[in-house]
Amino acid sequence: MDRIGTFPDEILTHILSFVPTTQAIATSILSKRWIHLWRHVPLLHFSDTRLKNLADNYRFNEFVYKIILSREAAGNHSINGFFLDIEYFYPKLAFCPSNPNITNWVDYAVECNVQHLDLYLDVLRNVDKHRNRKFPKLPFSVFNCRTLVSLKLHWFHVKECFSFDFVGFPSLKVLHLKEIYFDEYEEFILLLAGCPVLEDLDVFDVNFGGLETLLEFDNVFKSSSLSNLTTAYIRGCCCDFWLKALSNLKFLNIDFLKVCLIFI
């Protein structure tokens, strides 16, 4: 007896939101009822994507594009979560003209009021990704998304995203930054200061083009207590944290060799 098949569509789409999108699509062969269910899942999850050459890039672009079109044709114009995990065989594939169109996908997710955004890029080969400080550019639209509740980024260059009046993330509770490069240290300060309800912070191997901090940005961060912050992992970073911002922590893992606590 097909007990799962007796569940309402809302429950079935919720169940499918816990598996990668490719697996959700595979359920369409189960019966006529399941054919269109995956199009209404409130989450897009592309995991374990390995790209070895330009042809792989092109095929993956087309695959994601068709999925978005199918969802829209079914009347689904909302995205609760967008999760992307891409591993490149060579670093240069992340910068070629046929690079998977991450910017367009993120723009689309932001327009759909995404709440959970997880962008993980990496390189399969054992290479020095930090040589010449070259990272794929983070889509600008991320910093216009006021609906974000969690933001997790890996291997991105935060470039020219703070050249405008950054209004912050009023609902952001989780911020994980790993292998991220900022042009200026002050941009990192502005980002943290713009997360008033942040609860979970994980900062690993974050680098900066300039470490000189202007007094005005120091004052911005000192006035931001991060009073909701309860968990913080701070490792592999050459940066300052004011003790006031960490005063309510319940758990702290910190690398004192590279992180300086300012008692103000």
UniProtKB/TrEMBL annotation:
InterPro entries linked to this entry: F-box-like_dom_sf, F-box_AtFBL13-like, F-box_dom, FBL60-like, LRR_dom_sf, LRR_FXL15/At3g58940/PEG3-like
Lineage: superkingdom: Eukaryota
Pfam families for this protein: F-box, LRR_At5g56370
Domain F-box: residue ranges: 1-54
UniProt-listed CDD domains: F-box_AtFBL13-like (cd22160)
Protein name, per record: F-box domain-containing protein
